[in-house]
Each structure stands twice: as structure tokens, then as C-alpha cells.
Specification:
This protein is mainly beta. The protein has one domain (2-16, 25-246): Beta Barrel (Lipocalin), CATH 2.40.128. Helices cover 6% and strands 73% of the residues. An eleven-stranded mixed barrel has the order 2-3-4-5-6-7-8-9-10-11-12. The longest helix is centred in the first third of the chain and has 14 residues, at 2-15.
Length: 248
Amino acid sequence: MRALIFLLLTTFTTQAFAQSVAQGNTNTWFLLLNRFNLSEKFAITNEIHERTGDFLEDQGTIIIRPSVDYSINDNIELSVGYSFVRSWPYAPYTQAIPRNEHNIWEQALLKFETAGVSIQNRIRLEHRFIDDIVLRNAKTNPVYDIGGASYANRFRYRFILSFKLFKLNHGKHSVFFNGFDEIFINQSNNLMPNNIDRNWFYTGIGYKFNKDFNIQLAHMHQYDKVGNNTFISSSIIQLSVFKNFNMY
């Protein structure tokens, strides 16, 4: 663990200098997460993300992300999943045409609770197949097309902190805080850290109807790499709905 922290700090420090940062528009993101508990150990989860740029004006990204989850115990859950990502061009990103990404991922979720505060550490390793955008007829009228795909690995670490603020409706409902910071690290072919790809800092307020249903409204800051030492800094307003179904 110390070696991992050292590598992350070294990577971040190296990338922190000689950067060009553009200011992005305020984006609006929506998340629907459904979890189907098949037994005490196994579950199937599906996420649907709809992301727009410039406050509902521009189509940004759609993500569909199913997974199979296995709980070793109350503190450790392992998952394997797939993500379909469809992204469209929107300012200030310079992507020429829409493109797709398919990725397969493995994940470990470590959960703890102390003094009413829930702490989670989420570690995810993604294996990404990303459409390559190529330029045709560059000498006359530029035409862009999809020409094959590139493979890449990416490491993600999310630290999550949540706690109850107060109860409502005679204790049946509650309002809670949920926050996290997540760092995305591009990896080389041997899975060693390469460079910072993205960072999310999320602070939200949630309303919990019961243990299986809650909604959250949050602000998130995104720091997104788009080129060599070039980043986009954006504010995001996110609405999330979480609903579990017990099938046993």
C-alpha cells in the first residue's frame, strides 16, 4: 500500500507542473443505479448515466454499466463489469465526431463504519477499447471517420465518506451527506502508472426513503486531461437515483 501511495503521489507531482487549463461549461449529469440482490452473497448492478454539457444544452455522454457483485463479508465486495460509453463532441472538448468505448473492469470495494460515519475505498481496474477518430481527405474538405480502436488500461481509486445529518418523518426517512474524491490514472501495458487522466471531487446531499431507495443532488468538480499537459476544469451538477431490489 505504501508503494502504491508513493507511485500515485509521484505521478501527481510530476503532472502538476507546466499545465494548460481551460475552463469548461457547467455540465449536468444524471445517474440511475439499480441493484438486484439475488442472495446474501450475489447481486447484479446496472448503472445508466446521461451526461450533458453547458447546463442541459449539449449531448455529452451516455454510459450503460452492468456488473456482477460478490460479497465476501460485510466489509469486502468484489465485482466484474462492462461499460458501454458513447460520447459526442461539445465545447470546450475538441472531439470531432461521436465515438464509442467498450471496457471490461474488475473492482474491489472495502467498507467500514465508525461513529456513524461510513467509509468506503473503491479500487477499479479498466481495460478500455476506444474508437480511433481518423481524418479523411485532409487536403480538401476535412472528413472524420472511425478507423479501428485503441487499447488502454486505467486505474481508478475512489475514497467515499457519508454520514446521516438528521431524520425526518418520525425517523423513517433521513437526510445525509455523501462525498468522494476519485483519481483516474492511465497505465502502461505492464499496468504501471503513467499519468493523471482525471480527478473528481463530489459533495452531495441525499434523501433516504429507506435502506433500498435514496436520491442525491450534488456538485462535482472535474479536472479532465485532454492532451499533453492540457486539462479542462469543469463544474458539474449531478442528480442521482439509487434503487435496490431484493430478489430472495
